[in-house]
């Protein structure tokens, strides 16, 4: 089922969302997407280009394929280098450069509509929250601090480490959160916006709620197997607030 606030089946959608949250004691949030658009004002494509230029400046152009060099996703560049030189100082330097770019991006990140009030409402309803992201945990913490939301998640912010094999769709960061919070997978819920989020949640045994800000993202989530996808967090907020 794809839950969409724009159709005539709002009552059924609200009930589906209520049931998801009724079983949850812990909510695991992806960061870039459900909480904000991290690169709204600091283009991810330019960041990816910058990483490629940095590699080329070190005489390492041959590390990347043509498609990898053209990718607008900096994680594609990082993954490509890690596959060829896993655990190397080169990967560590590249990851640190990406972390610094993500930290810059927090200053111009665009909050996802309805995310802030939904986070505060869940906390008020005594659900515990965690961040489970492929972004730098430093960047996630910096953004949350700027929005006055850090206390809603602290200390449970689990993001990218130097061990890049642990990035989603590997469930590593989800499992870290579950262990730290003493939560069984079935009493958690993940909110994510990519197939890798869904796959990580499935592998961890955690129920999943997809957020898709456009039709393309919705098709990707549904194609990956997600069964409940919303196009606006307003629908989720309404469901959580419904008595």
Polypeptide structure, described:
There is one protein chain. By secondary structure, the protein is α/β, with parallel strands linked by helices. It folds into two domains: 10-38 and 109-241, HAD superfamily/HAD-like (Rossmann fold, 3-Layer(aba) Sandwich); 44-107. The chain is 51% helix and 11% strand. It has twelve helices and eight strands. It has helices at residues 10-22, 44-57, 66-70, 74-84, 89-105, 115-124, 137-146, 150-153, 172-181, 195-204, 215-224, 233-241, and strands at 26-29, 36-37, 110-111, 128-132, 157-158, 188-192, 208-211, 229-230. The strands form two sheets. Strands 5-4-1-6-7-8 form a six-stranded parallel sheet, sandwiched between helices. It has a two-stranded antiparallel sheet with strand order 2-3. Strand 7, helix 11 (215-224) and strand 8 form a beta-alpha-beta unit. The longest helix is centred in the middle third of the chain and has 17 residues, at 89-105.
